[in-house]
Amino acid sequence: MHLKVCKPEETMEAQLEHCGREMEELVQALAQYRNNPDMKHRAEVLFEAMDTITCLWTFIAMEFSKAEIEAGIEFINNKNYVRHYLLEQGEDD
């Protein structure tokens, strides 16, 4: 998955507020999909989820370098591995 960073808001706080609005749109899209589970509403859930991810990705990129982001990704993946949260993780891991 490769979502591109967008033009950020003026401050991290404003960007985070933007992310909150994107999350609200995702919640609304999911509610509409649950009430009318057709392909149009299903696609809207996907698009709103990806908008939310992009917004958060932009928030992260505002403050952190590529090296910091890569280290953060490795940290989170390792933490999730230890907690057995990863989908591709076997029961013996």
Overall geometry = flat
SSE order, one letter for each helix or strand: HHH
Mean pLDDT: 95
Helix content: over 70%
Going by helix content, strand content and strand pairing, the class is: mainly alpha
Biggest sheet architecture: none
Low-confidence stretches: none
Kindly estimate the percentage of residues that lie in beta strands according to DSSP: under 5%
Rg, Cα atoms, Å? 16 Å
Distance between the termini: 25 Å
Annotation, overall tally of beta strands: 0
In DSSP terms (H or I, runs of 4 or more residues), the helix count works out at: 3
Structure summarized in a few sentences:
The protein has 93 residues and is mostly helical. It contains three helices and no strands.
Keywords summarizing the entry:
93 residues; mainly alpha; 71% helix; flat
What does this structure look like?
- 71% of the residues lie in helices and 0% in strands.
- By secondary structure, the protein is mainly α.
- It has a domain at 12-64.
- The longest helix is centred in the middle third of the chain and has 25 residues, at 39-63.
- The model has no long low-confidence stretch (mean pLDDT 95).
Please write out the topology:
Layout: H1 12-35, H2 39-63, H3 66-82
Helix pairs in contact: 1-2
